[in-house]
Amino acid sequence: MKRFLLAALIILTALALCLSSCESGEKPGKDGADSSSVPESSGSDGPEKISGPTFPPELSYDYDLTEYISLPEHSQLKLNVNILTVSDADVDEVIADALARAGSSEDITGRGAREGDTVTYDAVGVRPDTGKEIDRGTGRSILIGSGSYLAGFADHLVGHTVGETVKFRYTYPEDHYSAELAGTEAEFTVVIKGIKVITPAALDDEFVRSLGIDGVSDVAGYREHVRSVMQNNADAENEQKIRDAVYAVLDEGSTVLKRPEKEWNYYAGVCSKDADNRAGINGVSREAYIDQTYGSQEAYQKHVEDYCAEKIKKDLITYSLAREYGVTVDPAEYERELRYGYEHFASAYGVNDLAQFEEIFSADLSSGLLLASALNAAAKNAIISD
């Protein structure tokens, strides 16, 4: 597995393992959602009903799309995708992380950080040539000597004590997950907030049973469980990376021949309503809001044109592929994703009713699932090289 993605996968695995061991023994599905858990209606005897996938009538695209878009040849796409795999070393690292979390720790104040210490820090990274901030984080932690995250970064913290500010230059790995940062040099200012020596828990059957993972009672079973969760996460990541690669090829090679007026007007109306709403929130006129945000009415109109063009092109690609391959939105997948979104994100939007949540997000969710299914179909015959 590529090392720069291991840290993210460890986080996903830790979340999935937490869900599987903490939520009544139920294991999450491939996407991390626990399909057995559904929101309940106030005062009802069962789960709330959902309406199902919906698309705005203004976005029906119920006509011959070949008059509007020309797609590149895509019967056997050649894709270059970094496919993730799970190795024994990756499984060992996740288990070691779990043991460390369950172990004991000792705060260190009388010496500088050294190999084997876990350092907590705040950091700001800027480009040396421009001073532009490109990285910032608070409460980050790193195990000195592990090398699994930002190889070489922790070396700069060795010997420094709690409360010290350390300044150094660091070059991101060429295979860093962010293409913008890969190979980039940054000047970091790091404040060391804490140093700990962690004594991990022992890996034995008693530790495994203490996790309360349904059907897992010994070390061998735990190892297989961790591998399974990691592989599910890697598979989901690989599928998304392949879909992204397919879409990138289609987006670059497609030509919009003419714009569909009904759908264009729909998206222009979305922009107009958004401008009106934001102006009202800020207590200014629409014209004042546009001038303050975009600089001029002309710049705002350019924003609307770009937004509509992007949305229209994406829709034309989506519907063209969906009709070519005969795919639709799977109602069961729609319900699973909707309920997962409601359970985990509704409160952030101030929504406490599933029907209201569906009304707000159904169109976006339906469109996203339709595109994903269409891209999956287009990718079936693709030639993928790592």
Low-confidence stretches: 1-12, 18-45
Helix content range:
40-55%
Categorize the overall geometry.
globular
What order do the helices and strands follow? HEEHEEEEEHHEHHHHHE
Please compute the radius of gyration using only Cα atoms: 25 Å
What are its keywords?
386 residues, alpha+beta, Chitinase A, domain 3, 5-stranded antiparallel sheet, two-stranded antiparallel sheet, 9 helices, 9 strands, 15% strand, disordered N terminus
Quick structural overview:
The protein has nine helices and nine strands. The relative contact order is 0.17.
Structure description:
By secondary structure, the protein is α+β, with helices and mostly antiparallel strands. It has two domains: 3-86 and 232-385, no CATH class; 104-199, Chitinase A, domain 3 (Roll), CATH 3.10.50. The protein has helices at residues 3-22, 88-102, 205-210, 219-253, 261-282, 286-294, 297-325, 331-345, 354-379; strands at 69-70, 78-80, 104-107, 118-126, 133-143, 165-171, 185-199, 255-256, 383-385. The strands form three sheets. Strands 3, 4, 5, 6 and 7 form a five-stranded antiparallel beta sheet that branches. Strands 1-8 form a two-stranded antiparallel sheet. A two-stranded parallel sheet has the order 2-9. Helix 5 (261-282) crosses helix 7 (297-325) and helix 7 (297-325) packs across helix 9 (354-379). It is globular, with a radius of gyration of 25 Å. The termini are close together. Residues 1-12 and 18-45 have low confidence and may be disordered.
